[in-house]
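Why this split exists: single-chain examples teach little about how molecules sit against one another. For that reason, every record in the complexes split bundles all components of an assembly together and asks for one structure covering all of them. Below is a record exactly as it appears in the raw files.
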Amino acid sequence: MGSRRAFIAGAAGAAALLPIHGTSTAAAAAAPADGTAAAPGAFGYTYLGPQEATFVEALVNVMCPADALTPNGTDCGLAIYIDRQLAGDFGKGGRLYQHGPWHPGKPQHGYQLPLKPAEFFSAGIVAARAVAQARFGKSFEQLAPADADAFLADIAAGKATESRVSLADWFSQLVYPLFQQACFADPVYGGNRDKVFWKLVGYPGLPAFHAQNMVQFRGKPFPGAQTPKSIVDFS
Amino acid sequence: MNRKLKSRQVVFVGGGLMAALAARQLVKDGVDVLVLERGRDHDAGPEHRLPSQRDELRWGVRNQLAQDWSIETYTLRHARTETALPVRTLEAFLPGDGVGGAGNHWNGQCFRWAEYDPQLRTRLVDRYGAAKLPREMPIQDWGVTYHELEPYHETFEKLFGVAGKAGNLRGQIQEGGNPFEAPRREEYPQPPIEITEAGVIVTEGARKLGYKPFPMAASNSPHVYVNPDGMRLGACQYCGHCERFICESNAKGSPEVLLYPVLKRSKNFEIRPYSHVLRLDYDRAAKRVTGVRYLDLETGDEIEQPADVVVLSAFTFTNTKLLLLGRIGEPYDAATRRGVVGRNFCHQTNSSINVFYKDRWINPFMASGSSQTIVDEFNGDNFDHSGLGFVGGAYIFNNTTNGRPISTRPLPPGTPQWGTKWKQASADWYTHAFSLGTIGSCYPHVENYLSLDPTYRDAYGVPLLRITFDWRDNETKMSEYVTKKAVELATATGATIVGPAVPRKAPYDARVYQTTHVVGGTPMGADPHTSVVSPHLQHWDVENLFVVGGSVYGHNAGYNPTGLMAAIGLRLGDDLSRYAKRPQRL
């Protein structure tokens, strides 16, 4: 894990090594005894540029700090998940109706921007970095974890309105859904590395043949929840 | 390139459940049938096989079995004074795509509606007087009775191996079933599916309050089942991948499992996937449709397909859209309240409350699409509405169909959206919580309707359909009332935490999944001034044109629509068979 982290940090620039980054001892403590936490998984970014990747790693490390429950977001694969989604059909707006004319609409109309989701994601990074710079005198990636957390809370609550880009929409329409998916989608997509979030909540994953379990474990803890299986395990 | 094919006897537009059921009756009687379906054949695809079927992101979040919005979406406005905008990615409801339609990704929840529902106007006026129904609510009778449909309900339930407990056998109320059920001649073909722990909890609470909880009737087969056509359902695995998914165990009653394979063996049946119907050919002088035009997506050719009879059997919106595009029938005009095509568009009025139980193991991931326990005391006109200021109601139930963790992970109020506390709450409550839901009626309103959008077009250059819809007073009052009853039930179950009760409120939100039960636009009825098709689903102006599906509903009840729709679809098959032998006004 150390060399991979160093590789990403190096590619992203020295700033990546500052506060929000780095694997804490708590994360190491959370690693399963069987040593599978170091399973390599995919790394390297296919959509995000180095500065964007640094930002996203910092972001997911705030939203998923290393603690007694999981490693930090980057080590859980969350940044990789987001990168892959932005690079693929979702980022291109593959199933999004993309014809004008364009109007802002009401919130209940949902996404109404001419930008493809990946473009909006990148534009939001630029805006969030600029607002952080103006507010704190340093980049988002360099903020102390508590400051970064409070800044994200402002964005989520619609209290960061300095930029032309709506950071509240950026967060609610892209960042937050992608974050939740990164944690809980099948690890085949690059997040939820080593099924860490499935183990955390007790979701058994595949193959989910529960006809007998349904009766035997109704109202009782299900042992299979401790050892979830993913698409990767059946591929 | 344009090509004209040889004429066919009956051509269906839309290869979902309705076409399959009607065609089943027709093909038996030797009638020639062609079904045109815009999407692909799902059999043997990744959506139907392990491990790719168990992929929440692909099917459950990205909705890849549903209509592709990049090709065709709908525009939405809350009032006709507003300009509608396209919903660029729609979550509120999920029309299907491909052979089987939405009948692939449904949950299998299989209701007969209340006995009074097809005569709702008569029922409410008789009970409360005409003054109870505001002029803005064009509740109308459907021109058909439950008793005419009952044999078709019975046939459908046998075909789809429906599992349940009768509550009313020939007028005798049965212990353990729904006491408000319309009278049945026979028990369900299969016993109920297994109850979940959440269902046990709801049962305990409901009995304390004196209600009569019962298992939802399920088209999720509890056992291997062979239907009267010799087709086989596998046993449900309670895998938690039902709604939004195709069943890899073939345990969910679906047209692709039970109906199309039989039809495809017949010489007088053909289904053409990847055939996107663009418009109907309408001879205005003769008042006949002469066929349909479709785009063959596999060649890019525009095809002229002549037909003796055309049946619109597509999803709610497409049926309405093709009539409006063909200028067949008078479009509904909300300003004058005249015209019919597009009227009585209704969604369904639902709400939910998250409930948490420190010491109970819910195991949400063990569930079928219908493993739910129902309280029907506050649905429809099952209770006295005198003095209540609204009509209609909802059933209350444990909405436990899955534990897919991206989407189904209730968290107690006050939990932060991320961080260590968020993770801890996810870990603490994932398997100790569920959503208590209400599924409620939505009655028509003169300002809720469908029309063609003047600005936006689909990928083939055809105007999008425009939805003018909002939640009106009747529905929000109903939702507030029933949601309070759900809170009382939640409290009676002894929940550790009862989450915030959120009754349905305006404005209508396209970003939030509600149900796929969108109905109306081409209502059936006995009066041509308020309906598009007759009680036999024959177009009032065009004798050789029929319409079937959710679009023919005059209102939406607090019941899932598929059971009733299936009965209507089978009955249409018999009517079409008669019509094919002797074309006339039925």
